[in-house]
Write a structure and sequence with these properties.
alpha+beta; Phosphorylase Kinase, domain 1; three-stranded antiparallel sheet
């Protein structure tokens, strides 16, 4: 039995049952609320980041962005707690791999589900945009997908308001944050972002879903960013000749250097996508379920040893 299954640690009223993922600054745990038996996902800061004001601020920001959102393709947020061993978010538990994990096996396992994945992702992002937020980090890692192709959009750490702020009106640049393989030119330049910036990111994601690789690569971070700014937009047909020209043309417009040349909104993009065929020949259902793919470990055993055992922390009253 592994160290993960042996552990019976408690954080506040939640018993940590299974480590789902270990990122740079956070663990994601499957947890059981002791009083009710309900299962949730806890996004909890690692021990080394518990006193890091910036890391705590990111969690708090994510809570402020997502706490009121209720959409079938956006992960639900239920609580943000800071009084326990480590600050953590309480989220809907959705047992699924992220798209980046699946893409380690190439694009074939996802081909049959592409239509569904793209439409559900666009609906989730459109919902965010209608609430005044730009996700700013649309990438395969932030899209969970189960065996049926149901999608949940996650991670709102760097989401921004779509309206122009006083600082932007005065000419101040925004901090440049994002994931280099999926950043729009305006994001790289530190300009104010809007829904069309997420259209660009989604274009990059769809390109990777269809080809197995992001649209741009580089031998250094600067070279990669420079390609987003100036390199000609590749055609996905070069890497997958089963993709239709009409789909390839939509992707090229979604990844236009100038946002004025992209679809005006996620909804406009969705309507256009619904009216085309992605593939010339319809893919067959995968022989292996996504949940059965061997995508490698997600457990950082050394970090687990730093977690408190039950009884080593004060147990505050449940906030409900």
């Amino acid at each position: 039995m592994s160290i993960v299954t042996k552990m019976r640690d408690f954080v506040g009223p939640y018993r940590l049952a299974r480590l789902v993922r270990a990122g740079h600054s956070c663990f994601v745990w499957e947890a059981v609320k002791d009083e009710t038996g309900e299962r949730f996902a806890l996004k909890m800061l690692k021990p080394d980041f518990v006193d890091d004001k910036e890391a705590v601020g990111y969690l708090r920001h994510e809570w402020e962005v997502a706490k009121g959102m209720k959409h079938p393709h956006v992960i639900r947020f239920y609580d943000f707690r800071t009084q326990d061993y480590a600050p953590f978010l309480v989220l809907e538990l959705f047992n699924a791999l992220n798209l980046k994990q699946v893409l380690r096996e190439g694009p074939e396992p996802l081909a049959y589900l592409v239509d569904k994945i793209v439409q559900q992702t666009a609906k989730g992002l459109h919902y965010m945009h209608e609430r005044g937020w730009v996700h700013c980090d649309v990438k395969p890692d932030n899209l969970l997908v189960n065996d049926e192709g149901e999608v949940k959009l996650i991670d709102f750490t760097i989401a921004q308001r779509s309206k122009r702020t006083l600082k932007s009106l005065l000419g101040f640049k925004e901090p440049v944050r994002g994931t280099r393989s999926y950043m729009s030119p305006e994001q790289i330049r530190g300009e104010t972002l809007d829904r069309r910036s997420d259209v660009y990111g989604l274009g990059c994601v769809i390109f990777e879903l269809l080809s197995g690789r992001p649209p741009f690569t580089g031998s250094s971070p600067n070279e990669l960013l420079e390609k987003h700014l100036r390199a000609s937009i590749p055609s996905v047909v070069v890497y997958n000749n089963n993709v239709t020209r009409e789909c390839a043309d939509l992707l090229r417009r979604m990844m236009s250097k100038r946002r004025e040349n992209r679809p005006e909104s996620m909804w406009e993009m969705l309507q256009e996508f619904r009216g085309l065929h992605v593939f010339s020949k319809k893919p067959k259902p995968p022989k292996v379920k996504l949940s059965e793919l061997n995508v490698g470990p997600v457990t950082d055993v050394e970090s687990l040893k730093q977690l408190p055992k039950a009884g080593e922390q004060d147990t505050p009253e449940d906030e409900g």
